[in-house]
Amino acid sequence: MGIVYSEPACQAAFDNDVRKLYHVLKADPAKLNVQDEGTGDTPLIAACRHGNIKVVQYLLDNHADVHLTNKKQRTCLHYVSKRTFTALDYLMIIILMPILLLGFFIMEDKKRKNEKLMKMILSSSVDINAKDYKGNTSLHYLSHKKSHRLVPLLLEKQADAGVKNNLGYTALDIANKKKFLKIVTMLKKAG
Q1: Of 156, 148, 129, 126, the residue nearest 140 (C-alpha)
Q2: Angle at the Cα of 4 (from 29 to 138), degrees rounded to 5?
Q3: Is the model's pTM score more than 0.90?
Q4: Which one is the CATH code of 128-191: 2.60.40.1120, 1.20.1250.20, 3.40.50.300, 1.25.40.20?
Q5: What mean pLDDT, rounded, does the chain reach?
Q6: What is the three-class DSSP state of 126?
């Protein structure tokens, strides 16, 4: 289950198929930043949306444009920030938790991968404070998700905690509303 893209480069990136992506880009290097007709996603956005670390690294190494946005005005950083556990992930964690804490290790591995993906994107020249069509920045999404590991990474890169979305909320307002005290403390220190 997933997204079906009209652009082969986007589909290969989403499917984590570095080999296919290599061949698409070898045949037409302009496809590196091609935007899908339906979503406006680029291969980099597609890879970030699905958390494909190898593909993201390949695209960044080939100088994919991190500033491009899709039809929702989201950058690759927005999608890294929006990544969460799927229903299947939660099911596996619940089933495997009693068995030698395997569920816990699966959860921690996914968190480490999301952190690695975030660091990769932040190592580029991505706009930390880019707003999507709702006016949300990546910091808004991370504050909404209670992402203790990722919020400090954005703050280290000087993410602006005072940016308001279209509803007038800052990341701090969201964290306060959801009672995520650890994130509230981080954002207050940064503010």
Answers
A1: 129
A2: 80
A3: no
A4: 1.25.40.20
A5: 90
A6: coil
